[in-house]
Amino acid sequence: MATLLFWIAVFGASEILAQTDFSLQAGATGKDVVDVAINRIDRSNIFQNDKNILRRIACVETQYGANQANGNLGGIWQVSETDFNRTKEAERYPHLIDMHNDIWKMWGVRWKTLGYSELLKPFYSGLAARLLLSLTEVGSRRPIPGIIVEQANYWKNFYNPAGSLQAFEAAATSETCETNCPGRLDICIALDASNSVVATDFNISRYFVHQLLTTFETGASRAALVVYSNRLHVTFALDTNMTWAQKKQAVLDPVQTPHIQHNTHTAEAIKYCIDMFNSTPAVVEGIPKINVILTDGKSNDPGPLKVPMVAPLAEAAGITSFAVGIGSGAVYSELLTIANNNRDRVHDLSNFAELAQFFQQLNQETCEIPQTPRVNDTTTDSLIKGERRYFKYTLGVEGLQITVSTTAGQTAVYYSYTETTPSAALYDGKIEGSGVIPYRLPTTTPAPPPTESARGDLFRTGNSTNPELEVYLSVTGLSDRNNYTIEARIFVPGNGASIVNNLHRNAAFVALFVCLANLIIRPLSA
Q: What is the pLDDT of residue 443?
């Protein structure tokens, strides 16, 4: 019996413990909470790409909840009750019918019966704000712009008429709203230099790459740049000895980064990046490998080498591909093929002016790609305050013993079975020094609750599209400079301290576990 209870304690914890999610707690604030709400909304695919306006509105309106108006029940996004009621008017805005149905199917939420005070919970506030934006975006057919100045006008005209344009622009570009992630990754940027890209737009492309490199230059990342048209021109490769300053100078130099002005051999550019990754050893095993393919039109590679053939090779090589289309000539279906059918990795920008300001968003998204070290490997790293690294490990039935040794500063470590970017706002468990991540049995997607209530089971584990038997970790730096190592080993039962950590010192789990033990032991003792 003791053995049975031991394995229930070790491997059953994840089934009994509830996921911690502050985006569902009334009054919760902070950037991490906002990120959880926005990520859930974005990944639902209910809405079109909002071009980062939802995150900017959260920062502009309340600084991620820190400055909410007294008595306003609209939450972090400060949605008024009048506007909240408008998001329920499917008779007036027919596109809401499908959105309301999708919200019910995805999260078990009956939007038309949801109370206004529920917007004090960040997820509902963000969802209300996104539905409100859709009234203009879809209902009035006025797409959300990607340029901050134009977003300020969009916000004032259709979201907050009393707001200040200058205040929006100032806040949206402040360090509070826009932060760089130095990152730890290898990235290959392929820049379209075909004849459909006019000279002024190609200069904007150079500027975009220059700014993107700036976001990474203080970290441990490496970058390569290839310009493509009917031929390739490599400005610099991953293993170059150039400094970041020299790389950025080379990007702006028309000789080193030429505007070739011929056809669009996109497949050839993708193949170059794949070959470079395959031939260039990683500095550390498991570092993310990322392709960023920029194009303003459909590819026209000659011969047998085509995008549908070469794009899957990137995925097979462990490369994450982002496809960025610019202007009306970009073909969404081809962008989706480049991104290996991952809509979250496709960005369809209206024009090159939007590209000029897109570097910050791309920086954040690439930094969310997890490192994939092998079990028993030790990873040594350094973080600045607020910087975060993500990891993904394969989780066997034995569970994983995670050890994080912080030699300077202080770190916080969270893990999740389904969320690829766990944080203090959303996690299944914490690791303090050393702890066990137990195996969790595969789950299935239950049907929506058979009630007509506004809220159902928001966190049905099976809604996640992430594969089972993988676990995701994050390490966040809490001091100005934080040095740490992280190691994962297959868990060997018998370490009592690890078991205590595994149970997370969670009173709810202890109570449930005692009840379970009583149910098992009582019949045996009768």
A: 56
